[in-house]
Design a protein that fits this description.
The chain has eleven helices and twelve strands. With 374 residues, it is an alpha/beta fold. The protein has two domains: 152 residues, 2-Layer Sandwich (Nucleotidyltransferase, domain 5); 168 residues, ATPase, nucleotide binding domain (Nucleotidyltransferase, domain 5). The strands form three sheets. It has a five-stranded mixed beta sheet, with helices on both faces. The chain has a five-stranded mixed beta sheet with strand order 9-8-7-10-11, with helices on both faces. Strands 1-12 form a two-stranded antiparallel ribbon. Bound molecules: 5'-O-[(R)-(carboxyoxy)(hydroxy)phosphoryl]adenosine and zinc ion. The site of zinc ion has 6 residues, from helix 4.
């Protein structure tokens, strides 16, 4: 395995750029990809942007040797949502043991690592700081490269981990608790955002509707589970913006429609079928996203669709998009459930792709809670 220097061995002009003058992440770009990065390269990926503490060792950017995920769901359940202070404290407590476990499961030691990647943003700043500080410390002590990774880009790379046949270019539906984006991904680091939500992210809508219906936290998986017992055509909730040109979506109106429907029915003394409400809400989300994704495929003349992000675990969306792709002869890629949720493997895979292109992050790079994809 090639051992690489921490600092780029080519001239980089960092004159006068101290931590106090820093504005956003700095990466040093090497003109040629490093020959040393090959199929044997081991990268440790650390993810702490939200409520999952995860570390993973990935070989050659594609082969997952370990992917340890410690979920904080139980800590936040009592509050019905993520409490940032609790999240960062929990990351501090479990990150080191999670990394140790990831190395053990990968049958590797710190000294086998060729690089360390950590999520730089977007996410909760306190949580991001924990992972980034630990990753930089490991890189500094081992004298190996550190690279800060965009969480959204990492989700895109989960498509490659899920299926070795995945390739660029692709229309990517990146759908999670914080983001809902349709992206034309042309290659490594070459992304065009075609559209996104103008209000709530899809996962946020799932969670809010679930809370209103009195379901357990987190709400997305609960609605998914209940939908299997209900009729998705029972209630005609609106498909906002579906017929408008462009690739933007809106979920705030759909959420309000669900609330109004339940309140009106209760006011009339009618019994509400919660499974029917859940299934009809989910069907509306699926119809909107499938429609817009296919429009993006037409727009880009695409042949491949990637579905990724936390809401990619939704059974209705997986099925709906797969069937739409099948009808049009498109290749469809969606990772396993474990790789849809936030995880270190996608960070390691994305970090490896960056390092291969010679993109290192300086050791004074700060996390950015609002880091944009492009
Ligand atoms: O990607 P992720 O783990 O965290 C963010 O980056 O946001 O996504 C979490 C979101 C939550 O809103 C959760 O309710 C939703 O993904 N989710 C689901 C399902 N599983 C997780 N939504 C719908 N159906 C599911 N099966
Ligand atoms: Zn995520």
């Amino acid at each position: 395995m090639g051992r690489l220097p921490t600092r780029p061995p080519w001239p980089v002009d960092l004159e006068g750029v101290g931590p106090s003058q820093q504005s956003g992440p700095r990466t040093a770009v090497r003109p040629q990809p490093l020959q040393e990065w090959d199929q044997e390269t081991l990268v440790l990926g650390i993810e702490t942007s939200c409520d999952e503490t995860s570390a993973s060792v990935v070989k050659g950017g594609r082969e997952i040797l370990s992917n340890v995920i410690a979920s904080q769901t139980d800590l936040h359940r009592a509050y019905g949502g993520i409490v940032p202070e609790i999240a960062s404290r929990a990351h501090v407590e479990v990150l080191t043991p999670v990394i140790r476990e990831a190395l053990l499961q990968a049958d590797a030691t710190f000294w086998d690592l060729d690089g360390v990647a950590a999520t730089l943003g977007p996410g909760l700043i306190g949580s991001l700081l924990v992972g980034v500080a630990e990753a930089k410390s490991i890189a500094a002590v081992l004298d190996i490269p550190f690279v800060g990774v965009n969480h959204l880009e990492a989700h895109i790379y989960s498509s490659f981990l899920g299926d070795p046949g995945a390739a660029w270019p692709a229309v990517v539906l990146l759908i999670s608790g914080g983001h809902t984006l349709l992206i034309h991904a042309r290659g490594d680091g070459d992304y065009e955002v075609l559209g996104g939500t103008v209000d709530d992210a899809a996962g946020e809508a799932f969670d809010k509707v679930a809370r209103f219906l009195g379901l357990d936290y987190p709400g997305g998986p609960e609605i998914d589970r209940l939908s299997l017992l209900g009729d998705g055509d029972a209630i005609a909730f609106p498909r906002s913006m579906i017929d408008e040109p462009g690739f933007d979506v809106s979920y705030s109106g759909l959420k309000t429609s669900v609330i109004n429907y339940v309140r009106r029915a209760e006011a009339r003394g009618e019994e509400v079928s919660v499974p029917d409400v859940a299934a009809s809400f989910q069907q509306a989300v699926v119809d909107i996203q499938v429609h817009k994704t296919m429009a993006a495929v037409d727009h880009t003349d695409g042949e491949r669709v990637f579905l990724c992000g936390g809401v990619a675990a939704n059974s209705g969306l997986r099925r709906g998009l797969e069937q739409a792709c099948e009808r049009r002869g498109l290749s469809f890629y969606v990772p396993s459930m474990e790789l849809c949720t936030d995880n270190g493997a996608m960070v390691a895979a994305c970090g490896t792709a960056l390092l291969r292109r010679g993109r290192y992050s300086a050791l004074d790079t700060a996390p950015d809670p609002n880091l944009p994809l492009v």
